[in-house]
């Protein structure tokens, strides 16, 4: 692996998505700057060049197979081809730590994670909004024509929208950006990062990118645990139960049909 100024392609796009940048596939000065910031925060040589060490830190589960992990109480091989291997390798530790003790809970959990992350693909919140998008979604934070000066500036947008709430400092501290949404069910805000930090060995507050690269599934299980979702999952395998879980996760029932479809698929495979 070697990505640097001038590199192009799908690996560059994956890198940019991880860093919270627009994934245009062109490794330019902005990408280099973000790489250097990540490298410095993670004790790596901050030269802006992504070699094996930096890539491995960003994507620690890449290249691992089911043979590399302890299977746990589930027959995970049945999910192969339905769930990405990178997700399957995270299930045993996550299940053991957060009480995912049976196929019913796991099927509910994976169905929600899969939908919320666009098929286990999105692990960073996309904050690259246009002015119109900001006015529609975050209107109260951008009165008058303020949205025009923030448009397509994800770091500035997150710093303003998430500033002075969820445990974050004021906009100027940029903690809203530092603790933006990450993981399959996006962990957001310094308060939540601080609470999740107690469940893992790494220093999440100093290295929040790890929520996206190393703990996207475990952080989602923490969310389920915090919000009392396991007891709802335990109520059964009906559409009504999936609906109840969805309302707790999503607030409403956006994408309910897709969540139900995948719950049934995973539960049938695991049962």
Describe the structure.
It is a single chain. The protein has three domains: 10-58, no CATH class; 66-122 and 218-270, no CATH class; 126-180, no CATH class. The chain is built from 16 helices and no strands. The protein has helices at residues 10-18, 29-41, 52-58, 85-88, 91-98, 103-116, 131-137, 147-150, 154-161, 175-178, 190-197, 210-213, 216-226, 229-233, 239-250, 256-270. Helix 6 (103-116) runs antiparallel to helix 16 (256-270).
Topology (SSEs and partners):
Layout (H helix, E strand, L loop, with lengths): L9 H9 L10 H13 L10 H7 L26 H4 L2 H8 L4 H14 L14 H7 L9 H4 L3 H8 L13 H4 L11 H8 L12 H4 L2 H11 L2 H5 L5 H12 L5 H15 L1
Helix pairs in contact: 5-13, 6-16, 15-16
Please tell me how large the radius of gyration is.
19 Å
One letter per element, helices H and strands E, the order comes to HHHHHHHHHHHHHHHH
* Total count of helical runs of at least 4 residues: 16
Helix proportion range: 40-55%
List the domain count as a whole number.
3
Distance between the termini: 40 Å
Q: Which stretches are poorly predicted, pLDDT < 50 over at least 5 residues?
A: none
Query: Structural class from helices and strands?
Result: mainly alpha
Largest sheet: none
**Which word captures the global form?**
globular
What is the oligomer described by this structure?
single chain
Number of strands: 0
What proportion of the residues form beta strands (DSSP E)? under 5%
Mean pLDDT: 91
Protein traits:
271 residues; mainly alpha; 3 domains; globular
Summarize the structure.
By secondary structure, this protein is an all-alpha fold. The protein has 16 helices and no strands.
